[in-house]
Amino acid sequence: MDLNLDAPHSMGTTIIGVTYNGGVVLGADSRTSTGMYVANRASDKITQLTDNVYVCRSGSAADSQVVSDYVRYFLHQHTIQLGQPATVKVSANLIRMLAYNNKNMLQTGLIVGGWDKYEGGKIYGIPLGGTVVEQPFAIGGSGSSYLYGFFDQAWKENMTKEEAEQLVVKAVSLAIARDGASGGVVRTVIINSEGVTRNFYPGDKLQLWHEELEPQNSLLDILNAAGPEPMAI
Amino acid sequence: MTFTIPIDNGDSVKTAEADSQRTLYPYVTGTSIVAIKYKDGVLMASDMGGSYGSTLRYKNIERMKAIGKHSLLGASGEISDFQEILRYLDELVLNDNMWDDGNSLGPKEVHNYLTRVMYNRRNKFNPLWNTLVLGGVKNGESYLGMVSMIGVSFEDNHVATGFGNHLARPILRDEWHADLSFEDGVKLLEKCMRVLLYRDRSAINKLQIAKITEEGVTVSQPYSLKTFWEFKAFNNPTAGAEGSW
Asked: Which residues cross the membrane (chain B) (predicted)?
C-alpha cells in the first residue's frame, strides 16, 4: 500500500466559523495528513492573528502557516501604528491580499473570525482564489462538503454562545465521521467582547453517529460482562 | 464576424511551465448577467450565486455594483477578480472626484477603461476571468456594453453573459423593442432569468434586478421567482417507454 509519505502536508480538514449574539465561535478538527498517513493527529488549526482575531486554516499546511505568519506580522505593526486593536475586516483584507495576489501558488482556504468594537463578531470566508465573503457562518475544508445540508437545516440567527458552540462541535464531529481527511479532536475558540476562550473536545468524548459503537477497553470486558438472557422475548 | 465566449471548464489554457503570473482557472464563479436598455435607462438582472465547481457554495453574492454616479457594472466569472476590478474602479472614481471640476465619468468612459484593462491582461496571458456588463445613463443617453475576459468589447441594446448568451439573447432578440416600460422590462428580464433557472446548473433562485436611470442606480432587494412544474407531461414521462427519460 503506497502511503506516499513524500506528499505535501495537507490539512484535509473541517473548519467552521459561526457568529452568535455577541461574538463568534471558530471550530476545527485536528488531522494533518501526508498522503494517507496522519502526520499530526492533534494539530491546532485555529491560529491567532491578534488578541481579538483568529483564523481557521485549511488546505496546504505550509501555505496556510506562512500566510497567517505574514498577516500576524503585518497586523502587529498595524496595531502599533493605529494605537488600538485591529478590526476583523482589516485582518480579512490582509489575508485576501496575500491569497489573491499569490493565487497561482497558494492552495489554502481560510476562515477569519473575531470581535472588534465597531462591528462586533464577524466571520469572513476566504476560499481558493482570494474572494472575500462576509457571512453569518462559514464552513471550509474537505469535510465541509458533508456539512452544507446540515447547516442549511440547523443554522439559525442570534444563537446564544452555548448553542453556537454546540452547533460547531456537532458539525465538526459529523464531518469527522464521514471525511477521511478530518479527524482527531475538535478544537473551538470563542471570541467576544470579554476575550478569548479555547476549548478542547477529545475524539472519544464526542457523540456517536450512525454505525459507530461505544468505545471499549477490550473485547474481554464485553465477554466478561453479564451475558444476555437466553432466548429473551 | 463571430467570436465565442470561453467556457470556464478549468482546462482551457494549457501551459507546460508553472509560470508564476498566469491565472489558469477560476475558483468561485458567478453565472449569467442579463441586461437591456429600456425607456428610462438600463435594467440588469443577476442571481446571487457563487459556485465553487459544481457546488453552489455562496448564495449571497452581489454581482452588480454601482460605479460612480452614472454606471452599473455586472460581472460573471471569477468573483475574486471582480472584487479586484471594483478596487481599480474605486481608484478611478476617486481620482475623477478629486479633480473637483464638476465632470464625472460616464458609462462610455468606464466601459473603455475596463476594455483596456481586460485586453492588456489578456495580452500578458494573465486574464481577469470575468465577462463584464456595463450599463449607464448620462445626459439622457443610455449606454449598454460588454467586455469579455479576452478583451472583446461591444455595445448593444441587450446583452447577456455565459449561459445567458445562449438562452436569454434569443428571447431578447424576439421580444425586445425600444422604449420598453419599466414593468415590461422587468417582466422580460424575469422571463429570461426563469429560463436560466430551469436550464443553467449553476443558477440559483435568488436574484436581484438593478435599474439605472438619469437619477441614479437602484439595486433591488434579493427575491425568488416562482417556477412551474405541474405539467401533465412531467408527471409520468416514462409511462409508455420504461427506461427512457
From this structure: none
